[in-house]
Amino acid sequence: MKDISARIPDQTRIRQSFRRGLGSYHRAASVQAQIAARLAQLLAEAGGARQIGSAVEFGCGTGHLTQQLAQRFDFGRLLLNDLVPEASAALSVLPRATRAQARFAAGPIEALPLPAQLDLIASASTVQWIADLPGLLARLTDHLVPGGWLLLSGFGRNQFHELVALGSAAAAPSYLDAADWPAMLPAGLEIHALEQTPQVLHFDGAMALLKHLRQTGVNGHAQQGWSRRRLRDFEDRYRARFGQAGRLPLTYDPVLLLARRTG
């Protein structure tokens, strides 16, 4: 298996893939919706103040996490960000009072000018696309106030392991297990919660599985075209190796992190 951690993501291809899936993402991305709900729950359970003065959410997408946070917290200032400019529509999921204090900025989080003195930096199902994750985490930590929260989720090394075993090159560059995360964090961050709970979706056939990937945009590195023969061969190999009761499983491997700046 190739070392996927060494890959540099093609952000143009990723942006195009997520843009194509933007209209169907909110409905199709059921696992990502559950992840967003659990992230917001973790922050609420940690005893964070209901009022959050200044926050950034990057990779906001269609607003799964945005909506979950807005249901539990009030924001003084909120910056939403995504690689896809059309994701600015996520502002619409905010309550009117919060929306008045919120703005959207498009582009890669690695180059985004960040406000100083942030109380919360959050992102759901995004950090696996960051090639230099330690560098980004250090930068994000520098912008948190003492006591500020870092709330993130990515995916572990078992993510889409069925596709990888069948030769897919569509993996993101930074799949990390929960056990990998402590070494990734810069000094000054204290872990409050760290969870890894795989979830398996099942599909009737290869066409339905590939449609799911296309509708969620998660195949941002995929370059393979699909002829009828290639699709049939792919499904036959998938069923022979992983088939379960006539269906095709697809494993998601979410990893959730809540950390706090100590000083």
What features would you describe in this structure?
This protein has 263 residues and is an alpha/beta fold. It has a single domain (4-157, 172-200, 252-261), classed as Rossmann fold (3-Layer(aba) Sandwich). Helix content is 35%, strand content 25%. It has 9 helices and 9 strands. It has helices at 11-28, 30-45, 64-72, 96-99, 133-142, 161-165, 181-184, 206-216, 228-242; strands at residues 51-58, 74-82, 102-106, 118-123, 144-155, 189-196, 199-203, 248-252, 254-261. The strands form 2 sheets. A 7-stranded mixed β-sheet has the order 3-2-1-4-5-9-6. Strands 7-8 form a two-stranded antiparallel sheet. The radius of gyration is 18 Å and the shape is globular. The chain starts with 10 loop residues before the first helix and ends with a strand. Mean pLDDT is 89; it is low at 1-8.
Distance between the termini: 41 Å
Detail the poorly predicted runs. 1-8
Q: CATH-wise, what's the superfamily?
A: Vaccinia Virus protein VP39
* SSE series: HHEHEHEEHEHHEEHHEE
Q: Main sheet, how many strands, which sense, barrel?
A: 7 strands, mixed
Percentage of residues in strands: 25-35%
Structurally, the number of domains stands at 1
Helix content estimate: 25-40%
Please write the CATH class name: Alpha Beta
Q: By helix and strand content, what is the structural category?
A: alpha/beta
Largest sheet, spatial ordering of strands: 3-2-1-4-5-9-6
CATH topology name, in short, is: Rossmann fold
Query: Rg from C-alpha positions?
Result: 18 Å
- Average pLDDT across residues? 89
Estimate the global geometry from the Cα principal axes: globular
